[in-house]
Design goal:
- The protein has two domains: 4-126 and 288-309, Rossmann fold; 130-283, Dihydrodipicolinate Reductase, domain 2 (2-Layer Sandwich), CATH 3.30.360.
- 34% of the residues lie in helices and 27% in strands.
- It contains nine helices and 14 strands.
- It has helices at 13-24, 39-49, 58-62, 79-88, 103-116, 130-140, 174-190, 286-300, 308-327; strands spanning 4-9, 29-35, 53-55, 69-72, 92-96, 120-123, 147-157, 196-203, 210-218, 223-229, 231-242, 246-249, 261-266, 276-281.
- Helix 5 packs antiparallel against helix 9, helix 6 crosses helix 7 (174-190) and helix 7 (174-190) packs across helix 9 (308-327).
- The relative contact order is 0.16.
Length: 343
């Protein structure tokens, strides 16, 4: 199968440190160009990463007829505008999470995809990691009985005012940056959409972004709760609790590339851990898998790992969580789907 020739918008750290090197190791990805509004930065990144072409504007990259697909790791507020421009230039688009600033904005991408006929997907790399595929398989297979609840925590410490994660207008804050992960995997594992959600937030007095968010999602089959924070000790965890057992991952969201991943299953027979067994997942890089899976969808005219329909539903839940934090009430995701209040 012919490789997909990729162009990258911007020189974000996630792209230059994680995603580009991983995609370059893939079977179906060729990173052919990178663009920045600062040509010097684009040329520096291209030189360090062995990318043959550097552009000093996004427009030049989008106009390159040799580029098949665009990877968009720009700040959140630029996800939809630049992805639409890429689609209108005939490029397929893999856009970083969260896909948009709101579900209503994400629906603009749906319209662009349907109008242009390109493949557009959200870069939730956890979707393709074998450890998460195994979690879904075990839980759907009844390994922990009936799934009743999930609980997660995800956080880091970043008080830098100039960092995009702390800029409200750019879509910064804990829920948008990392809270989207427990929303995504809860929906993925339950295989359902939340009926209603509740949330509370603490905001930084200088940034205005949420620096600590606690949330509950009520699914038809059970509950999921999580905490996310941007001024807390670095941490990540998730646990799924069933009627006859529980299951958790050692490193759920940022699995270390090319190292063994581990998931634990507890049959509940001993509080001291006597009933815990461990499964090991072979080393892999989820960004490599993501790039190849998206490239295959391009070549075979198939669905990307996370299609836009799923991305819109994830944003609808995030919208509802913001609304719930403001209202102090339970909110239905559909009622908050177009809400674009204080972020």
């Amino acid at each position: 199968m012919q490789k997909v020739r990729w162009g990258v918008l911007g020189v974000a750290r996630i792209a230059t440190v994680k995603v580009i090197p991983a995609m370059q190791r893939g079977e179906l990805c060729e990173i052919a160009a990178i663009a920045s509004r600062d040509l010097g930065r684009a040329e520096d990144a291209a030189r360090k990463l062995g990318i043959p072409q550097a552009y000093g504007s996004y427009e030049e990259l989008l106009a390159d007829p040799e580029i098949d697909a665009i990877y968009n790791p720009l700040p959140n507020h630029l996800h939809v505008p630049l992805s639409i421009r890429a689609a209108e230039a005939g490029k397929h688009v893999l856009c970083e999470k969260p896909i948009a600033m709101s579900a209503s904005e994400a629906r603009q991408l749906l319209a662009a995809r349907d109008r242009t006929g390109v493949v557009i997907g959200e870069a939730f790399m956890v979707q393709v990691h074998p450890q998460w595929q195994r979690v879904v398989e075990l839980i759907r297979g009844g390994r922990i009985g009936k799934l009743m609840a999930a609980r997660a925590s995800y956080g880091y410490f970043n008080p830098a005012p100039a960092n995009i994660r702390n800029i409200l207008a750019y879509g910064g804050g804990a829920l948008m940056d990392i809270g989207c992960y427990p929303v995504k995997v809860s929906r993925m594992v339950f295989g359902e959409e939340p009926r209603r959600v509740s949330a509370t937030m603490a905001r930084d007095p200088q940034f205005g972004t949420d620096i600590l968010t606690s949330a509950v999602m009520e699914f038809p089959s059970g509950h999921s709760s999580f905490i996310c924070g941007t001024q807390v000790v670095p941490n990540q965890s998730i646990e799924f609790i069933g009627s006859t057992g529980r299951l958790w991952l050692d490193i759920p969201f940022n699995a270390i590339p090319n190292e063994v991943s581990r998931l634990r299953i507890d049959d509940g027979s001993s509080l001291t851990g006597g009933g815990i067994t461990t499964e090991e997942i072979a080393p892999c890089d989820q960004y490599t898998l993501q790039g190849d899976a998206f490239s295959r969808a391009v070549r075979e005219h198939g669905q990307p790992p996370v299609p836009l329909e799923d991305a819109v539903r994830n944003m609808a839940v995030i919208d509802a969580l913001f609304l719930a934090a403001e209202s102090g009430k339970w909110e239905k995701p559909e009622s908050g789907a177009g809400w674009a209040g204080a972020r």
